[in-house]
TrEMBL record, chain A:
GO biological process: sulfur compound metabolic process
PANTHER family: SULFITE OXIDASE, MITOCHONDRIAL, SULFITE REDUCTASE
A matching Pfam family: Oxidored_molyb
Gene that specifies this protein: soxC
Organism of origin: Pseudothioclava arenosa
This protein's UniProt keywords: Metal-binding, Molybdenum, Oxidoreductase
All residue ranges annotated as the Moybdenum cofactor oxidoreductase dimerisation domain in the record: 298-417
Any one Gene Ontology molecular-function term assigned to this protein's record: heme binding
Protein name: Sulfite dehydrogenase
Record-annotated Oxidoreductase molybdopterin-binding domain positions: 124-280
Automatic annotation (TrEMBL), chain B:
Species name: Pseudothioclava arenosa
Matches recorded under SUPFAM superfamilies: Cytochrome c (SSF46626)
Domain annotation Cytochrome c: ranges: 56-144, 241-344
Keyword terms of this UniProt record: Electron transport, Heme, Iron, Metal-binding, Signal, Transport
Entry-linked InterPro entries: Cyt_c-like_dom, Cyt_c-like_dom_sf, Cyt_c_1A/1B
Name by which UniProt lists this protein: MFS transporter
Record GO terms (molecular function): electron transfer activity; heme binding; metal ion binding
Signal peptide: 1-23
Amino acid sequence: MDEKERAITPATDSGLALSRRGFLRAGAAAGAMAAGTGAALAEGTPDPLITEVQPWAQGWGDGVDATPYGLPIRFEGDVVRRNVGWLTADVISSINFTPIHALDGTITPAGCAFERHHSGAIELAKEDYRLMIHGLVDKPLVFTYADLERFPRVNRTYFLECAANTGMEWAGAQLNGAQFTHGMIHNMEYSGVTLRTLLEEAGVKPEGKWIYVEGADASSNGRSIPLEKALDDCLVAFKANGEALRKEHGYPVRLCVPGWEGNMWVKWLRRIEVTENAVESREETSKYTDTLEDGTSRKWTWVMDAKSVVTSPSPQAPIKHGKGPLVITGLAWSGRGAITAVDVSIDGGKTWTEARLAAPGQDKALTRFYLDIEWDGSEMFLQSRATDETGYVQPTKNQLREIRGENSVYHNNCIQTWWVKANGEAENVEVS
Amino acid sequence: MSKFRNLVIGAALVAPLATPVLAEGYGLGREALPEEIAAWNLDVSPDGTGLPVGSGSVEDGEYLFSDNCAVCHGEFAEGVDNWPKLAGGDGTLARKDPVKTVGSYWPYLSTLWDYAHRSMPFGNAQSLSVDETYAIVAYILYSNNLVEDDFVLSNENFLEVEMPNADGFIVDDRETTEYPIFTNRCMENCKESVEITMRAAVLDVTPEEEGGEAAAAEEAPAAEAATEVAAEPAALSADPALVEAGEGVFKKCKACHQVGEGAQNKVGPVLNGLVGRAAGSVEGFKYSKPMSEKGAEGLVWDETTIAEYLKDPKGYIPKNKMSFAGLKKDEDIAAVIAYIEAQSK
């Protein structure tokens, strides 16, 4: 097992190096291709890509074992997580962003799903993994990884959104790309054991009202969660999208707290303490609290409210084909249930059209929406607006500011505007 | 369908409240031993639950803070670069861009004690003793003008310390202040005019996409040429695979150190030319006293001395400023030295 892991680690590292090289090559290839198709082909001229036998249609491709664990083809080398250097003091306690502008569907591939660490992504082997449940329980217990695999298992798909997603946009439009404004999110199918099953195994005493969960990394990131939520839908997960959790997502075991802010989804979960009160640790007092205009702050703001964003067209995904048929697409989600509708506006919110949901909204999971239009080539102020099953309608930034002021960092679920210009380029703007 | 779901969620929410969760189960796992619980159960609550017996003075805390915390948080807890400020900010919470520090924002002292003891120093967590933690917490309180310089914090007077923003928090009230308002799904004539009020491109703080297609095409040959040029000297000195591995290891150092072209002193000194130079000799960097003394005594960094230092930074030069637990594996140390050397050229 150790060897296997070692084999994975360098592959990941060189994967990053490769993707950089791959990106350069992909860029060069794309450039050449654009020149080939754009410049040379007059109407009526046969396309050499069709009339001439191409090397890939003549020789061999790679054999089956060329990449024992595959990475995306090099042409997609720019679809990667990126960070914003000035946001944090270093990369050990930092965050990067999912390239949502380049993805489709709803499941986020683990390899480009955003990371947030407080003390770096640690390597914790399954053999070294222990999970302790203690505190106000009938019987304090220690589980090994192998123990967890013997409990009845469930599969659930949930989004995970960092409370700070879109947090840099409170004061005004700042970052020019959906990846940076809305990329602190991913959506995976988890396999694991319900937290309820494990708590029942230990037996919660009647005075137990909260749990405190803690990770095994040096930050010992910990959060207090009310027992009702713990017993409702929380999951102790060890697989995501069918495979073992990635190191950066908490291998071998993480907590899922569906619909609630990502910081609570403790990675490398090692301890669950049943308590009478909230511990009020650093991440639930000094951070992840929301200061209002008068200087008082909201605490325990766990739920992620309904939100949506157009992922394409967007600043990193401009329209390159000119006027005519255009696919407008994006993502919507709600921490309070399923998305029931998404509306799209191309005039900055004067009029709205209901978009098509690719599939019915799922509880606390990403929903993909499409609006297929005939673009006339004029500029657009593109917006999307989500409605969830509670009837909550995603607000504008000004609506949020009226209630919260401008000193918030977290929980900015406002309507986003992309200014799509006549040449197809898009820019992050704020509108009246 | 959604009605059915609501019914299920409703039932799930009610059930746990109505019936206590009974221990029955699968008989998996084993009983946690008292020593094991004690080793991991370190959190401290606002009412003092979990707080161990001990004490520490502002005076001792000042030295301890300087050795363990100041490298990021500043000698006076004022914060270095982007690292958190721990002091100041009094009266700024209702202002634009509030300064949130232990003194101005944190509601409970237990949070500070717990975090310092359980999660700090950054890169060397859980290395502070109970008394050292009391002393450092006392010093941070002093930095915020909350206690006098002769103050000694202990488990006995812990709950008497008043935190200025203790009453500054309310429980999430979105259910009453926001949810009833955010329900208008207007479809037509929702507003009269739309004007741009702010543009991200004007602010221009978005990271570069590492060049567009054209830039990438230009860059590619240059990068290849650079690799070719670098290939020869590298073959003479360092193993490229080792250097590459070292690049990975160096991620642990990057938070504080820079190396390579344009590198500057940051939290730690610049590492260009590290191999062969005297300890504590980088101009413009403020070293700890023990490090400067080692240099004066003639310590020169070579592969052996760097390796010994990296294995146990605090053991090799006690009380030096570098807050880093060290590298356990010899191959990591060899790799990171190779990388620093390669970057220095």
